[in-house]
Amino acid sequence: xxxxxxxxxxxxxxxxxxxxxxxxxxxxxxxxxxxxxxxxxxxxxxxxxxxxxxxxxxxxxxxxxxxxxxxxxxxxxxxxxxxxxxxxxxxxxxxxxxxxxxxxxxxxxxxxxxxxxxxxxxxxxxxxxxxxxxxxxxxxxxxxxxxxxxxxxxxxxxxxxxxxxxxxxxxxxxxxxxxxxxxxxxxxxxxxxxxxxxxxxxxxxxxxxxxxxxxxxxxxxxxxxxxxxxxxxxxxxxxxxxxxxxxxxxxxxxxxxxxxxxxxxxxxxxxxxxxxxxxxxxxxxxxxxxxxxxxxxxxxxxxxxxxxxxxxxxxxxxxxxxxxxxxxxxxxxxxxxxxxxxxxxxxxxxxxxxxxxxxxxxxxxxxxxxxxxxxxxxxxxxxxxxxxxx
Length: 390
Ligand SMILES: *Cc1c(COP(=O)(O)O)cnc(C)c1O
Description:
390 residues; alpha/beta; Aspartate Aminotransferase, domain 2; Aspartate Aminotransferase, domain 1; 7-stranded mixed sheet; 3-stranded antiparallel sheet; binds pyridoxal-5'-phosphate
């Protein structure tokens, strides 16, 4: 057994990132400036996005997306229970009503048919989450949204570098929000990027910085550079150049980091896939998985311990794990406000009860990966349910 604790997700920060942050500090420009603009351009280039707006979080991007699309009180937004609270909290922030629908049993992504069945005259948008880095069925969701005149917003917090039918996530004209939180595939400590058409992002940029519009003012005055107008009560959601300094260098490292993630996933898959207690993650043929998470699902009938006990056994072997996610409808705010019961979304609830996320980070050594595999297989050999010989 390893003698130091392996964190569930450690960022990979090298000398390049450190040097770039120092250079930003020495440049005298700390907040949004040349490095955030460069990061936006590089991000567009890397992922074929039409335009990009750097922000202080993915949550900010989702919030602004709803504001830009004029979604508010009286409107319904369909989304998934299998996500982090941020995807749904923002719907509450704008005064709209989240409508949850269940997920597909294999990918744990929104089920397009369930989305279509949940549409009412009040529905204005769908927030789709690319769970664990596996893209949702984008063609099906896009055509449902087009047919009913709904906006599609993508929560791509897990999906940097993912693709659907060869097209990178974020390359579409609809609003898509990425996260650079410390555990995400590319990190700026805290940060986010909103992508979409230049027209939508122009409005989003105004919302991201107090609702300030310099062009609106200059239309009416011969004013100098000091002049601005407030056209909306906007937010303070901009990214700093210190964050962008990290992002610029993380982007250069990104393909190598993703390759390392894929190697680790392959090692896990081949170690676990032939053992009855384990269900390994699937990847559909027409997608590129960004592998943000490696979610191992337990077949409870094949084990004498439950998921919580399995996690305790992992911790006892010095391996950090996590659970993604406690479904939205099980959190007290949503449960009480909307009178949800755990089995209202049976697929999400059932998956939650049997899932754990294993360490997955490009910072892991081969020994770290071997330690995780040893721990999982050791727990299996101790707690697999033995069947009477036939
Ligand atoms: C991490 C995460 C977010 C929030 O990202 P921040 O950058 O921390 O705001 C949103 N949605 C999902 C699915 C996430 O995992």
